[in-house]
Amino acid sequence: MRDKETNGPxxxxxxxxxxxxYTPNGHAIPRRVGIYVEGTDTCLGVNSENYGMVQYPDIxxxxxxxxxxxCGADLExxxxxxxxxxxxxxxxxxxxxxxxxxxxxxxxxxxxxxxxLGMTFRxxxxxxxxxxxxxxxxLKRIACMNGxxxxxxxxxxxxxxxxxxxxxxxxxxxxxxxxxxxxxxxQYGNLFxxxxxxxxxxxxxxxxxxxxxxxxxxxxxxxxLWSRPYLWRGYxxxxxxxxxxxxxxxxxxxxxxxxxGRQWKKPSPEGLKxxxxxxxxxxxxHLTHTSDTGYLKTAQKGQEAFSTLQKFCETxxxxxxxxxxxxxxxxxTRGLGTPREVNKLIVTKSEEFSISSN
Length: 358
What we know:
Blueprint: E1 6-8, E2 16-22, E3 28-37, E4 43-48, H1 56-71, E5 79-86, E6 93-109, E7 116-126, E8 133-142, E9 149-159, H2 167-171, H3 173-188, H4 193-197, E10 199-201, H5 202-211, H6 216-226, H7 243-247, E11 254-259, E12 262-267, E13 273-275, H8 276-289, H9 295-314, H10 320-326
Antiparallel strand pairs: 1-5, 2-3, 3-4, 5-6, 6-7, 7-8, 8-9, 10-13, 11-12
């Protein structure tokens, strides 16, 4: 079974070459070329003869050189990482790559929330014809006590693979990325404020976890953390809900509310409360430290959970959209189908049944 991804500062470092491709009968396929890992039989994709092949290491070197001019003596502070992914056409490792440069020398403090924001510059490329060469500039913020990092894209561009591609077009985006980073600071505002200030009870949080589009195992692990504040990473004891009071939330009742013609259990708003940000911390603590999901899938799950919690904070509690997030969904029972008719089995006693042999 092929790996889903290879993650690390050197993961990007493969080179490829164009080769003619042939039919099983040995005839060259016109106007098409195969892209192979250099010196191997590993095919990452089949493309037009006009395909402009840009090596992953060349992209890395070009961005490094541009950053060396821009950052000067601060170059050693740059934190680089890359993720090598399988080809979307052949499934072979190396068909796609994502590279990221985190630039802490440009860190700034956002004036509304007081958060320290860092700039990240990303480049992606592929040899399977699936990705152009996009660049993406993001705001990077430590969103949780456990070290979960949230990104918000503020600028995206891309270039096509052609014979005339100019690697300097990629370099020219560095300055524009810094401008986009400055603009993103002004847009950041209250992105995390609601999540960090909105109250949520134990039962409401439990229902939100149940309603997440996660695997059952992941939901159970997150519930385990949510129910045990002493396991929350990075929290001082005075920030954790008092355990005995937290458990009493189980004793509060509920009422039934009708949503789209079905009866949902709405938990009582009474009881000890935490912040929605604490619930997000439990979700990302599991994803960061105990989940065995791959890097990209884990990041996607974190973003989905954050979007759900933002919706919970921004939507009036009495609306159907909000209640479907924090109420317990009714169980769906399906009736048994009508048994189909079968031929009756007639049983005879052995002594009454004999076969004559003449």
